[in-house]
Amino acid sequence: MKKSVLATAVLATLISSSTLAATVYKADGTEFKVGGRVEFRGDFNADTDGTEIDGTMSDQTRARLNLKGTSEISDGVKAFGFYEVEQKAKDSDEKMKNRYMYAGIDVHGNALSFGAQDMAAVQVSKFSDIGEFTGLQKRIEGSADHTEGVIAYRGNFDALNLQATYKAESSDDSDSYGVSGTYALPMGLKLGLAYSMDQERVDGNTATTNSTDKANQILAGISYALDAFYMGATYSTGDTGNGDNEFDTMEFALAYDITEQVRVQAIYGKDTTDVDGGSDIDREDFVELGGYYTFNRNLKSYVAYKANSADGADDDTIRLGMKYSF
Predict the structure, then answer these.
(1) pLDDT tens, residue by residue, 39-92
(2) How far apart (Å, rounded) are the C-alpha atoms in residues 35 and 23?
(3) Is 287 part of a structural domain of the chain?
(4) Which end of the chain is more exposed for a tag (fewer CB within 10 A), N or C?
């Protein structure tokens, strides 16, 4: 593959958030785009975690705006920057949040970037993270998305994509890092493997005592795409960083495009923590069934049903949504 094509592939991976982003300036090797989306999301019957709703609906509506730019420095060398902010309609301490905010340089398909961005494992966790309630594999800080203070290397080598990320913290011995690789085979099959670590970790979701043990995660994924059919599966295991507590997390996703407008999905997700000296805790255990209808390249509607069997979940969730992308 030509170096210029490699560079384009890396940049597309780095700064793609909306394929509909509008080019507002393009001249002399410099390009600037604006994109985003407005998305109504209403949860009925129960919140995402299965907590029963007292009223009619839990409003999860959100909007995102992103700015992205690239400029050519020399042949095969480009500078790039990306910024994305999200605003939530629901009252919370994080009603307005910067999701991505980074800049970097790409040299013949090898990109180095700095700022708030995805950790390396995300390129593997995306294999199964296609639903409204998925994303279980971002289990520790070292495998999370849109993370602050990250130094990242990303490189494309034909069918092989390699990534390495390091998250710098202000506290001593609390940095995180990750490495990952994906390999795409000609028949539509893709394989992925990632390793992530937090030097210190306190897992507030399952903690019984405050601990500063190291947390780690090994993540494997496989996906297959053929015409209108898609399958993605991921499995990870690791240590929560809280004493000897360990976890096993899995997601299996199937999707099929019935027509150009209609898409159906079925997903299973489970995240179990093995508490040292105690019983296992199912943080997530659900089946998600979803249907999507695309009106045009800008507007999409969907309905998703989450059959929730996690520990502490009171009821199932029904989510209705409509998303306008620009």
Answers:
(1) 999 999 998 888 888 889 999 999 999 999 999 999 999 999 999 999 998 755
(2) 9
(3) yes
(4) N
Residue (of 140, 113, 143) closest to 125 by Cα position: 143
What is the pTM for the complete model shown?
Answer: 0.88
| Predicted confidence (pLDDT) at residue 203 exceeds the cutoff of 70 | no
> Is 33 domain-assigned?
no
At 213 the pLDDT is: 76
**Residue 279 DSSP SS3:** coil
The answer to whether the Cα torsion of 321, 266, 17, 176 is positive or negative is positive
At 220, which CATH number? 2.40.160.10
Q: What is the mean pLDDT of residues 262-278?
A: 92
Q: Decide if 81 is inside a domain.
A: no
Instruction: Please say whether the dihedral angle defined by the alpha carbons of residues 198, 200, 205 and 208, taken in this order, is positive or negative.
Output: positive
Residue type for position 295:
F
- Cα separation, 90 vs 99, in Å, equals 17
